[in-house]
Amino acid sequence: MTTQRLPLPLGMPDVGVYPSKLSSELSLTNAKQQECMVMPAPTGSDIGAETLFNVPATYVGTPKLVLRGVIDGTPANVFGIGAQLLEVAAAATVDAAYEAEDVASNSTWTGYADEEIYELSITLTPAAAFTVGREVLIRYYRDDSVDTQTINFLLTELFFEFNDA
Amino acid sequence: MATLTNNSFRYIQAWVNSQPAIKADFKTWSLSRPTLQAAFQALEDYMVGGFSVRPATSIRAAIEAVTGATTAARAQSFFAAWVAWKLNNYLGGG
Q: Are A148 and B32 a contacting pair at CB < 8 A?
């Protein structure tokens, strides 16, 4: 059994979250034009994006959502991420509520600084075990009830992590 | 004086993000959101409620005192962001 990572599209953003490139957001000496999704600190409500993926044929268990990006500011305080999912079978409606949120946070920034890459994993707890081949609609966001930062997070990669057979 | 709502602070945050020099000033500061929001509220209270009182030293020093800004640049950044928010309120009727 090995741990696999399935790259996911960053998805459609909420108002206030927007696609950009690293050099447009950071004052870099060495330009970097890589795409990122700017996730500002929340101010009174969760703010993020929504995407989806197909449960891989090799999926066995231990599902996680992994956010990787660049810190846009001197890191301090609490960085909090939430995620909600909805697994949908073929010929089933997407018009159903997301399940209860899963959260992850970090408030220890030793070793991290402005313009550095940071990664945070959220352990997903689906109401029923994922079924291979089904669609999983997922919403991820900076959690207003947890996050106390004022700096942006520049999301560059999003993964569905899982253990295979 | 106005109470800064979450929408107010969201506007300020977006405006700061659109101004590279001011953003650079704020992002090295590592303030928590509640602290930063309280500082902007203190600035609003001072500018509207206490502005008729001549500051003991300077407006900049007064801004530093109410916001906790520790440098002149930060005080100026605070002031600029506050002005942008007030203009948006007046011009947009917010």
A: yes
